Each structure stands twice: as structure tokens, then as C-alpha cells.
């Protein structure tokens, strides 16, 4: 009846008896749509014209508003008025205390640091698990540990999953870099790094109850950069345009780790190259960012020869990153 | 005489009154017996004949007399598992059980089983095999032990029903060594049938229930899964011994008859001991600790442990094998905890690498997920576990012990997050541990104790023990324990004792959880529970 006429009409699948006998052991509720139904029936009786389209029906509905709708509208108006009042009060208070009208970014950042610390200290996040394949070691974790140092101490513990029979020897150096026993006690964020055969899909598990598993090293970096010191949070530190550009860089890294052909690989490296351009770091400025860490990490995982496959500026950039992070693998 | 004649007369009268039907039946019976006799005579004559000319295989089959070690026969036997295509066209002797047989005209297929390995044998009428030999083969009862001489032949298409898929044996000689009764209380085939989640309603669906299995344990143990389970159990024991011996532990043997209950909580069995009574040891703990006090430094023991608990659950036995260890440490009980963790990791690796066949064999009958672990093992603190459980919606206090459902849930949470079936939970609340547990020096509500879990079930409960007699007395008083009853325990620490910690596991429970089985009776060869002390 009230559906659009452009659709097929379906026959009811089951026919109900005329009168349904309802149990009387519970309170009877008023049908909340009764008013609307009655209204419509009345209207139909009086006009006998079927509404030809939805828009007409809506128009009709708006013409004769229901009492419930009016009540709801009134309530909303009241709440909005209350909010406006509160806002006024705060403005007055602020004027009295001589506070600037707009908080600076710096202050917001401090708040977020405190919040992060609170989250971590109060044990909302006890420990996050990163599953990585020995074929794709998450060098970025080692880089973040160096980069953040005191901003947010990372305590990394490594485990080998039973599906991995033996860890390749070339990971020894990485393990030394990533795990440091004296930091374990004072660390704010504990990372359990499990070597497991997950391919290029490095996984992040925060809490199986509330989060789904995150896949891909760059996505883990995005997650960590929100938790980490605000200085390194690319979304806080840059204007939206730069943030979006850096997201592009991160996505290119994601694809690069999953390349199947050399051709694909080369085209992605060219993309990264153009992102870098002539600037010193990926973000364009003079400071290293999460995007640099991501590219630096993925270039170590894939099979390339820097001298041959990368441009000269890229080579210089790679060298600078390694120097800055103090990691030479 | 008169009586006799009268009787005769009666009988003849009865004969006459017999209904026609009965007469007919009688006649039929008579004919039947006559025919039987005839056949017997024929058989006898045939057998007689075969001896002379017809049965050319005589002497190559039959039942050999009971082996009483009358003579030494030097004959090289092959194991069924050795039979691979490289032996093709060689003649081998094999001794095994007749698993199944199927006769079809002039040939008979036999599946020969030796432990969990099976091979298909073919007995077909040929110039060496007479039809009488084929008939003999088809009449051997299932589960009989037979000696077979046969030629190994490679087969074109794989034999899916046997473990040796690429060869079959063409029998040339066949003897029964020990025949089985023709009626078996359970069929090995039925007992070994894989348990599937999605029950196929139409397929053959015969199950052997647990009690029938246990009543006829000898037959039940012949299934491939059971063969594998108990080999793996031996492996656990051996690895435990080897790993700990390697780490400098000494194996000790503790008494099983003890004068008094050694540990609170679990009940003890009372046995009569000459004029008085004694108890069966419910834990070797006291003796392990005395060995430490006697400067053995690191000790372990493997032996029976008795618990008089009337609990009929899937994981309680009244007698089980305990693997216990105790170790002196220098400054921190984590030295011991790491040793225990490492022992388990090495054990799991050993099982994974050396018992892959057995694990696969068990997996064929009981589809379970392989055991997952981390190296080094995951170690969490009790408050972390409580926080994880609270996050999942469990209401519990800081000092509450974990209930069994909580433990299971925690196991699932940890598996989802860390993907491991094995983990250590450290720092239990002091309130839920026995009096001899060392309290945490930094937090009076916690203790230096730990539980170890496999697939969400506790397998080991251990702690740093109090090694100071004075402090031990104080703690015992706090727990309202009668000091007289534990005098000998406290006295053991009066002459100086190294700080030590340890724990114990139940062999059956560890094997059950490692394999992911649902009942501990599956991993005990002859289980003892409140309702069963046979066989």
C-alpha cells in the first residue's frame, strides 16, 4: 500500500487467521503507530486517492504532522537551547580567566600524550601482539624504538611460533636491535613479536574481544603512530593535504611488499621516488616521519640492489635514514 | 512286561495321532542329517584325496601347533611398516594380525595388521595356491595372529584403505599362530572409526562406547590411535627424563606409602599397614623438598600418585603418573620458572619433530587442531589475566582464584590473541595458595606462585616454597593448620635449606591436552577412577 509502485507486489507467504488470540498474562501495549495508521485510514477514506509516489506521501506526512513528531522536535529544540546556554557560560568563564579562545596545537598534543600514557598505564592496552613472518621482518618496529626512544618506550619480547621450525640466522642482528632487556621494566607499551608464517601480511592483535586483526606493516605503523609521541604522529603534525600524501606513500609500501613481478616492483619504486622528489624526507620537511620508516623498512624486505634500482636522491635518502636511526643492517 | 507292551501300544497310538505337518518336519530333519552326513563323508574323502593328489598346497597352510619353543627356526621377519616398493618381487615373512578378510570366488583378500600399520594380502588360486588354501584363508577368524610368506608386488593404483599404499603381498604360505575367538566383543574397525563433526546419517555409524572399550581394553588398545597415544605418552616420559637429566637434574624415587597426609586439600587413600594404617602418597612434594634440603640441588621424579577424590570428570583419575621436579635457585624463583618453561618447550619441540607420525595417526581418528606453542613460552601475570577476563565480561575480585570456566575462557582469549595453547600464569593471589607458598615481598596479597596451562586447562601448579622453618610455622598458624601434623615437614628445614621452587604435572593429563583429546581415560592405559578398578 505504502510502498513505491515501481516494485513487484508479493503475495503473503503465510496467511494469518483473521483474529489472533494473544495471551493475556502480559500488559497490553498501545500500538505506537496506531495514530499514523488511523490518520492514513482516515485520509484514504476521505480522499480515496492513492498517493502515486513516495515524495507525495512524504509531503502529505509533513502537511499533517503527528503529535509524536512535534514532541520530539520540541525536545531537540530544548536540548539545543541548553547547549547554547552552556557554551555561553564557558565563553564567559574563559573571558574571566583570560584564556585564549583557541587552544594551540602544542597543547592539544600534550593532552594526547598524557592520554596515551594514561591509556597505557591504566592497563587498557596491556600488550599488543605483532605476528610477523621471518621472511618479512618488521624493521619499522626497530626504527620506531630508536626514533621514539624516550617519547614512548617500547618493550619488545620475541617468541617463535611452533609453526616455524627454525629462525633464519640473518635475523640475529634484528633480534638484538629490537629486544633490549633493560627496557622491559620501564616500557610503556609492550609488544609481543611472534615469528609466524603469515607472509607479507604482518598482523597486529590488540584485543581479540574488541578489535579485529590488523593486517599489513603500514597499517600497524598507522596504529602505532597514533599511540606514539605526537611529534611523530603524521596526522597531527601535518596539514590534511600532506597527511593524505603520506597515506599514499604508506599504501605504496603496502603494495610493494606484495609485488609478484619485477615490473610491478619497479613501477612502485618509481612512484615512491616521485613522492620523495628532491626533498630530504618523504613528508617534504627536514624531519623524518612514519612514512620514511615505512619505506625504509619495506626496501629492506624486498630483494633489490639500492645502487641499481633506486635514484640517486633515493639512495641518499636511504643513507640518511639509516644514519638517523642508527641502524645499519 | 505288561506295562512295557502297554507303553509300546501307547507310543504307536501317538505315532498315528501325530499331525501330518509334524511328520513332514521329521522327515525333513532326517533328510537334512542324512545330507550332512553325506557331505561330511564327502569332505573327509576329499580331504583324504587332497592329501594325495588334489590339494597341491598341503603343508603350506594350516594351524601350527602351539609354540612351546620346541625348536629354533631361523627366519627373518619383516615389519609391515618396512614393506615399500623397494622390496618389490622379493619374498618376505611377516607376522601380524588378520585385520579383515574378504573371499570372492577363487581369491581372498586379507588386510594384515601389525601395530598401526596395515598391508593388503592376496591369496588367489594359482600353481602354488590351491583352492583349499584359499578356503582356509577365508575362514581364519579376525584378530588371529598369522605367519605369512609372500611376494611383495607393487600395485598400479594406491590402496587407500591400508597404511602401505604402494604394495600388496601375494601369499605363498599361510599359518595361524594364535587363533582368536570368532565372536569379538568389539571390532577393531569400529573402535578405530574416525569421529567426525558432521555426522553422516546414511553412512555406517557404529561407535564403541567408552565403557565397552575399557572393559575390553586389550582389544581397544590395538587401534592405530591407541597405539600412537601410548607411544607418544612414552615419548613424553622419555623427553622429560632426557631434558631434565641434560639440565643436571637427578632422578629420585620417593615412597608411595606414607605415614600422614602430605598436602592439604586432596584426600588420601588409607591402606592397612600391619597393625596400623598408612596412606598412599598423593604427591611426592615433601620428599622432593627433603632431597633439596639434602643438597641434591635439582631433582625430578616419575611415579604413581594417588588421589582419593570422588570426582567423575573428564580429567580426574584416582591414580595417575606424576612427573615432578624441584630445583634450588640462587636469588629469584624465575630461574626455576624459566627452566620449567624451557623444559616444556623442548618437550613440545621433541614431540613435534620426533612423533609426527603418532600425532597424525591420532589425528586421523580424533580430528583435533595441532598443539601450538611459543618459544620462549608466553608468561603473563595473574592481574593481566584478570584484566583480560574482565574485558570479556567476567566479574571477579582481585584475590579470587580462577574457576574452571574462567580458565577455559582465558585459554580461548589467549589463543585468540597470542595463538598459543601453552602459557604460564605468574603471581597468584596468596589467599588461594597452600600455606607453604612464599609470599611476594613487594605485595602481601600476592605470592611467588605460578600455574601452567595447556589448552586452557591447568597442568601444573607450582611455587617458591618457604624454606625457613620459623616463617613456615608462622604461615601454617595463619592457615589454622595443626602444627603437630606437619612437624616432620617443618623439621626438614631446621638445618638450613637452599631456596627452592618446583611443581608437578600429570602425565595422562599432559598427553590428553597435547593431543586435544576429550577424556583422560583415553590416555591412561588402564584407568582408575571412582567407578572403575578393572581391568
UniProtKB/TrEMBL annotation, chain A:
State the coiled-coil residue ranges.
69-96
Q: Where are the transmembrane segments?
A: none
- Do you know which InterPro entries this protein is assigned to? AIMP2, AIMP2_thioredoxin, Glutathione-S-Trfase_C_sf
Subcellular location, record wording: Cytoplasm, Cytosol; Nucleus
- Tagged with keyword Acyltransferase: no
Query: What range(s) does the AIMP2 thioredoxin-like domain occupy?
Result: 124-213
Listed GO CC annotations: aminoacyl-tRNA synthetase multienzyme complex; cytosol; nucleus
Q: Which UniProt keywords apply?
A: Coiled coil, Cytoplasm, Nucleus, Protein biosynthesis
Q: Name one GO biological process term.
A: translation
Q: Where is the signal peptide?
A: none
Q: What is this protein called?
A: Putative aminoacyl tRNA synthase complex-interacting multifunctional protein 2
- The coding gene here is AIMP2
UniProtKB/TrEMBL annotation, chain B:
Cellular component GO terms, alphabetical: aminoacyl-tRNA synthetase multienzyme complex; cytosol
Q: Which PROSITE patterns match?
A: AA_TRNA_LIGASE_II (PS50862)
- Biased composition of type Basic and acidic residues is found at 24-41
Q: What is its main location?
A: cytoplasm
The GO biological-process annotations, alphabetized, read as:
aspartyl-tRNA aminoacylation
A single Gene Ontology MF term assigned here is: ATP binding
- SUPFAM superfamilies per the record? Class II aaRS and biotin synthetases, Nucleic acid-binding proteins
EC numbers, comma separated: 6.1.1.12
Q: Where is this region: Disordered?
A: 1-57
Q: Which PANTHER family would you find in this protein's record?
A: ASPARTATE--TRNA LIGASE, CYTOPLASMIC, ASPARTYL-TRNA SYNTHETASE
Belongs to which family?
Answer: Belongs to the class-II aminoacyl-tRNA synthetase family. Type 2 subfamily.
Name-wise, this protein is: Aspartate--tRNA ligase, cytoplasmic
Which taxonomic lineage does the organism of this UniProt entry have?
Eukaryota, Metazoa, Ecdysozoa, Arthropoda, Hexapoda
Amino acid at each position: 500500500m505504502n510502498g513505491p509502485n515501481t516494485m513487484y507486489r508479493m503475495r503473503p507467504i503465510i496467511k494469518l487467521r483473521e483474529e489472533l488470540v494473544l495471551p493475556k498474562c502480559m500488559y497490553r501495549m498501545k500500538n505506537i503507530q496506531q495514530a499514523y495508521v488511523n490518520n492514513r485510514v482516515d485520509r484514504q477514506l476521505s480522499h480515496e486517492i492513492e498517493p502515486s509516489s513516495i515524495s507525495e506521501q512524504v509531503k502529505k506526512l509533513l502537511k499533517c504532522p503527528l503529535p509524536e513528531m512535534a514532541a520530539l522536535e520540541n525536545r531537540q529544540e530544548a536540548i539545543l537551547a541548553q547547549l547554547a546556554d552552556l557554551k555561553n557560560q564557558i565563553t564567559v568563564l574563559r573571558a574571566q580567566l583570560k584564556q585564549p579562545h583557541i587552544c594551540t596545537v602544542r597543547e592539544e598534543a600534550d593532552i594526547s600524550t598524557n592520554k596515551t600514557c594514561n591509556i597505557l598505564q591504566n592497563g587498557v592496552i596491556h600488550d599488543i601482539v605483532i605476528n610477523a613472518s621471518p621472511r618479512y621482518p618488521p624493521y619499522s618496529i626497530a626504527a620506531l624504538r630508536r626514533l621514539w626512544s624516550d617519547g614512548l618506550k617500547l618493550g619488545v619480547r620475541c617468541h617463535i611460533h611452533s609453526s616455524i621450525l627454525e629462525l633464519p640466522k640473518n635475523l640475529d642482528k634484528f633480534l638484538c636491535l629490537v629486544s633490549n632487556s633493560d627496557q622491559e621494566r620501564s616500557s610503556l607499551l609492550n609488544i609481543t613479536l611472534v615469528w609466524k608464517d603469515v607472509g607479507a601480511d604482518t598482523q597486529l592483535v590488540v584485543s581479540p574481544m574488541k578489535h579485529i586483526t590488523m593486517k599489513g606493516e603500514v597499517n600497524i605503523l598507522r596504529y602505532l603512530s597514533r599511540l606514539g609521541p605526537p611529534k611523530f604522529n603524521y596526522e597531527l603534525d601535518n596539514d590534511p593535504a600532506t597527511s593524505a600524501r603520506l597515506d599514499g606513500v604508506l599504501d605504496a609500501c603496502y603494495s610493494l611488499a606484495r609485488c609478484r613481478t619485477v615490473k610491478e616492483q619497479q613501477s612502485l619504486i618509481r612512484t615512491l621516488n616521485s613522492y620523495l622528489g628532491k626533498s630530504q624526507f618523504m613528508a617534504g620537511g627536514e624531519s623524518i616521519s612514519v612514512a620514511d620508516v615505512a619505506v625504509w623498512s619495506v626496501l629492506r624486505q624486498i630483494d633489490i640492489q639500492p645502487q641499481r634500482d633506486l635514484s640517486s636522491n633515493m639512495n641518499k635518502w636511504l643513507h640518511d635514514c639509516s644514519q638517523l636511526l642508527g641502524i645499519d643492517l | 512286561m505288561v506295562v512295557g507292551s502297554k507303553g509300546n501300544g501307547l507310543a504307536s497310538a501317538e505315532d498315528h495321532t501325530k499331525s501330518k505337518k509334524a511328520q513332514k518336519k521329521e522327515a525333513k530333519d532326517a533328510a537334512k542329517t542324512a545330507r550332512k552326513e553325506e557331505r561330511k563323508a564327502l569332505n573327509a574323502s576329499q580331504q583324504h584325496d587332497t592329501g594325495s593328489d588334489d590339494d597341491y598346497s598341503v603343508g603350506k597352510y594350516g594351524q601350527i601347533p602351539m609354540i612351546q619353543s620346541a625348536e629354533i627356526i631361523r627366519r627373518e621377519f619383516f615389519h609391515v611398516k618396512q614393506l615399500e616398493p623397494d622390496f618389490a618381487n622379493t619374498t618376505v615373512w611377516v607376522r601380524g594380525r588378520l585385520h579383515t578378510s574378504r573371499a570372492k570366488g577363487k581369491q581372498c583378500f586379507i588386510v594384515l595388521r601389525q601395530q598401526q600399520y596395515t598391508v593388503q594380502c592376496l591369496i588367489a588360486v594359482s600353481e602354488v595356491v590351491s583352492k583349499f588354501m584359499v578356503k582356509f584363508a577365508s575362514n581364519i577368524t579376525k584378530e588371529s595372529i598369522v605367519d605369512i610368506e609372500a611376494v611383495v608386488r607393487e600395485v598400479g593404483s594406491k590402496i587407500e584403505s591400508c597404511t602401505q599404499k604402494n604394495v600388496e603381498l601375494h601369499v605363498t604360505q599361510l599359518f595361524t599362530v594364535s587363533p582368536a575367538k570368532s565372536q569379538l566383543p568389539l571390532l577393531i574397525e569400529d573402535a578405530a572409526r574416525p569421529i567426525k563433526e558432521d555426522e553422516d546419517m546414511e553412512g555406517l555409524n557404529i561407535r564403541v562406547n567408552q565403557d565397552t572399550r575399557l572393559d575390553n581394553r586389550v582389544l581397544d588398545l590395538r587401534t592405530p590411535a591407541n597405539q600412537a597415544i601410548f607411544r607418544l605418552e612414552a615419548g613424553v616420559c622419555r623427553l622429560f627424563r632426557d631434558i631434565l637429566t641434560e639440565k643436571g637434574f637427578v632422578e629420585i624415587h620417593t615412597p608411595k606409602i606414607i605415614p600422614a597426609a602430605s598436602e592439604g586439600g586432596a584426600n588420601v587413600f588409607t591402606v592397612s599397614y600391619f597393625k596400623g594404617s598408612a596412606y598412599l602418597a598423593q604427591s611426592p612434594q615433601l620428599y622432593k623438598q627433603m632431597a633439596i634440603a639434602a643438597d641434591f640441588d635439582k631433582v625430578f621424579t616419575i611415579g604413581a600418585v594417588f588421589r582419593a577424590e570422588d570426582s567423575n570428570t573428564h580429567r580426574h583419575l584416582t591414580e595417575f603418573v606424576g612427573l615432578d621436579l624441584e630445583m634450588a635457585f640462587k636469588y629469584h624463583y624465575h630461574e626455576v620458572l624459566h627452566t620449567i618453561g624451557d623444559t616444556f618447550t623442548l618437550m613440545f619441540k621433541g614431540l613435534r619433530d620426533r612423533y609426527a607420525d603418532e600425532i597424525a595417526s591420532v589425528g586421523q581418528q580424533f580430528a583435533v587442531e595441532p598443539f601450538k606453542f611459543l618459544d620462549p613460552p608466553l608468561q603473563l601475570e595473574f592481574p593481566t589475566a584478570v584484566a583480560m577476563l574482565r574485558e570479556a565480561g567476567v566479574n571477579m575480585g582481585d584475590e579470587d582464584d580462577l574457576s574452571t570456566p574462567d580458565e577455559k575462557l582465558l585459554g580461548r582469549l589467549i589463543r585468540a590473541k597470542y595463538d598459543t595453547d601453552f602459557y604460564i600464569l605468574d603471581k597468584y593471589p596468596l589467599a588461594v595458595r597452600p600455606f607453604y607458598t612464599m609470599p611476594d615481598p613487594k605485595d602481601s596479597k600476592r605470592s611467588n606462585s605460578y600455574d601452567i596451562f595447556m589448552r586452557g586447562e591447568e597442568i601444573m601448579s607450582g611455587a617458591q616454597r618457604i624454606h625457613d622453618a620459623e616463617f613456615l610455622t608462622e604461615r601454617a598458624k595463619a592457615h589454622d593448620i595443626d602444627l603437630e601434623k606437619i612437624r616432620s615437614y617443618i623439621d626438614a628445614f631446621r638445618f638450613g635449606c637452599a631456596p627452592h621452587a618446583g611443581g608437578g604435572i600429570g602425565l595422562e593429563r599432559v598427553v590428553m591436552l597435547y593431543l586435544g583429546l576429550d577424556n583422560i581415560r583415553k590416555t591412561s592405559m588402564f584407568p582408575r577412577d571412582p567407578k572403575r578398578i578393572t581391568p
